[in-house]
Amino acid sequence: MTQPPTRTTPHVYHRTYLMAYDTGTGGLYDRTRTAFLLRAAVLAELAIRGNLVDSGGDALVATPGPTGDPVLDLTLDHVATARRGWHSWIRHDRGETLRTVEDRLLDQGVLTVDESSSLGRSRRTVRVADTSAVTALRTTVTGLLHGTRAAELIAPADATLVALAAAGGVRPVLSRSDARAHKDRVAELTGRLTAVAPGLGKAVGGLGMTLVAAQGGMGGS
Question: Which residues lie below 8 Å from residue 42, measured CB to CB, with a gap of 6+?
Fold first, then answer.
């Protein structure tokens, strides 16, 4: 008897991109912030998979690539070149990560691209092809935030989405009032990432200040 195809959960970076997409404006809620969030999402996924480990607050390669995914392999190759803290890796090459994620999602048909020109200048507009996927993901993330299920029973990858939404101020998913009212729940879910890689959990928890600095022109590379 033919077995049905196995459904796999999209990568953390895939879901993070959808989470950062604003269906009202037809684009990312904030490209600068999304680049940071995607870099953190990739690092989190590599840590959850066991490719990266925490060593005194630094990220180290435990299982070298290839992983079979170009986005994960890009960051894994970066981390293999130098010893840095998790916070530094979140800041490092984040723009390249954003472009690589978009290219990957374009190849998979998750995104579409509209090319146009005006006054001799070309413009590239990237949109999510199926916005119902964005709506469904928002429902999942808010459900985790408002839910009563013990944090230790929630998969680290799922908990990471809530942590990133809160740290990145993704208002289409998590309003300021929600973030304040559920700060203890956010801390519990961020703790799921901390349990995997303490330095990464700490870096994500403090990402808000990094984003403020970056948008003030002090973000580094």
Answer: 12, 13, 71, 72, 75, 97
Determine the Cα–Cα distance for residues 35 and 83; give it in Å rounded to an integer: 21
CB 162 within 8 A of CB 141: yes
Burial (CB < 10 A; 0-12, 13-18, 19+), residue 183, is exposed
Tens digit of each residue's pLDDT (9 = 90 or more) over 61-79: 998 879 999 999 999 999 9
Residues of the chain predicted below pLDDT 70: 1-7, 215-221
What's the pLDDT tens digit per position in 19-63? 999 999 999 999 999 999 999 999 999 999 999 999 999 999 998
**Do residues 186 and 145 lie in contact, with contact meaning Cβ atoms separated by under 8 Å?**
yes
The vertex-138 CA angle with 136 and 202, nearest 5°, equals 135
Q: Which two tokens stand for residue 176?
A: 């300021």
What is the CATH T-level fold of the domain 12-116+123-211, as seen in this structure?
Answer: yeast vps74-n-term truncation variant fold (1.10.3630)
Helices in 66-130 by DSSP H: which ranges?
70-81, 86-91, 94-107
Task: Tell me how far apart the alpha carbons of residues 63 and 50 are, in angstroms, rounded to a whole number.
Answer: 7
Return d(Cα 142, Cα 1) in angstroms, integer: 39
The dihedral built from the CA positions of residue 54, 55, 59 and 63, taken in this order, carries a sign that is negative
